[in-house]
């Protein structure tokens, strides 16, 4: 995949969105702002968030939220996951399809609530005074689309009924808008590969990551809010495949050799040593005690969750002295007779 255009777009988008969100924040926080009159609860939540996390972190969070949503909507438009283009126009047009349809009186009743639908119609018909009626109507349509996708993907499209909506960038329809650049970068060809989403995140955070590592050279500690920029990196498909085939895939073939599978895994190392296994049993007396497989790097068997504070307090880590054995765990009953099988790695 050609990533040069994606890199330029993602880095530009971050800087632009930070500026646009900050501008919106200044307007919303004015004493006599429209937002304070019409959305007092949302403004109150915004003030609480700023007090708790700081203005810079709130701006950073909201900017990335909208970047994530715009890119996801563009990808879904191109892939035809959406019934109507939310950020993408029809062929030969410039305005998003959902706005063009709304101007003709076609608004999806399943997606847009009655109150919002009436306001959109009034704005587009000129019955409500507005400096930018089409822009305001489109903002309502985007919010409705995000909320409609909340049921299917709540991890990505959280319901927008707070200050996130208030801080949505203003200019979304012009030729220099963030959506215009999103469409230019996320072409139909680029969207054929789902990795485009991962690369966009990698490039979006790249400038902040560079700044964090520059700070380390000056003996500046990484603060909690900067940990994601330093540690969350996109892993391309070929790396994931290499790791899986040579780790889990290798163990699978050792235990259940299937003719022809190794030929599909060109990166798998030869299985030079025969399988050797032995086992030991560990009995955990408390009910409701859950475990997870040991970390091969530390060779530890760690209880991951406990159902009650008392059992959680008694949770301990069992250290295993054998350094070349990978454990697999099977639960025998609810009273947890746990059998740990150790697979020798050649």
TrEMBL record:
Catalytic activity: a 2'-deoxyadenosine in DNA + S-adenosyl-L-methionine = an N(6)-methyl-2'-deoxyadenosine in DNA + S-adenosyl-L-homocysteine + H(+)
EC primary class: transferase
Alphabetic keyword roster: Methyltransferase, Transferase
Documented EC number(s): 2.1.1.72
Protein name listed in UniProt: site-specific DNA-methyltransferase (adenine-specific)
Molecular functions per Gene Ontology: site-specific DNA-methyltransferase (adenine-specific) activity
Transmembrane segments: none
GO process terms (BP): methylation
Organism field: Candidatus Nitricoxidivorans perseverans
Matches recorded under InterPro entries: N4_N6_ade-DNA_methylase, SAM-dependent_MTases_sf
């Amino acid at each position: 995949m050609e990533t040069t255009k994606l890199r330029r777009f993602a880095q530009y988008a971050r800087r632009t969105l930070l500026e646009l969100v900050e501008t919106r924040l200044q307007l919303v926080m004015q004493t006599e702002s429209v937002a304070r009159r019409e959305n007092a609860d949302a403004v109150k939540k915004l003030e609480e968030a700023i007090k708790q996390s700081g203005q810079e972190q709130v701006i950073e969070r909201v900017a990335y939220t909208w970047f994530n949503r715009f890119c996801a909507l563009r990808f879904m438009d191109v892939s035809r996951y959406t019934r109507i283009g939310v950020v993408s126009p029809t062929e030969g047009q410039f305005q998003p399809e959902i706005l063009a349809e709304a101007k003709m009186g076609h608004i999806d009743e399943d997606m847009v609530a009655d109150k919002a639908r009436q306001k959109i119609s009034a704005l587009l018909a000129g019955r409500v005074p507005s400096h930018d009626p089409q822009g305001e109507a489109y903002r309502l349509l985007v919010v409705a689309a995000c909320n409609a996708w909340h049921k299917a993907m709540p991890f990505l499209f959280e319901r927008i009924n707070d200050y996130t909506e208030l801080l949505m960038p203003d200019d979304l329809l012009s030729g220099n808008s963030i959506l215009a650049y999103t469409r230019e970068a996320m072409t139909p060809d680029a969207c054929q590969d789902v990795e485009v989403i991962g690369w966009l995140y990698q490039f979006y955070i790249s400038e902040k990551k560079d700044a964090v590592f520059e700070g380390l050279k000056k003996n500046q500690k990484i603060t909690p809010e900067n940990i994601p920029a330093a540690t969350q990196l996109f892993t391309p498909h070929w790396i994931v495949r290499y790791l899986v085939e040579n780790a889990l895939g290798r163990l699978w073939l050792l235990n259940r050799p299937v003719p022809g599978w190794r030929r599909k895994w060109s990166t798998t190392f030869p299985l030079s040593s025969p399988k050797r296994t032995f086992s030991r049993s560990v009995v955990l007396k408390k009910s409701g005690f859950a475990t997870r497989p040991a970390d091969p790097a530390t060779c530890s068997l760690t209880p991951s969750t406990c159902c009650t504070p008392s059992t959680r307090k008694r949770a301990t880590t069992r250290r295993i002295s054998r350094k070349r054995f990978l454990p697999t765990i099977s639960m025998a009953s609810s009273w947890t007779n746990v059998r740990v099988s150790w697979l020798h790695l050649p």
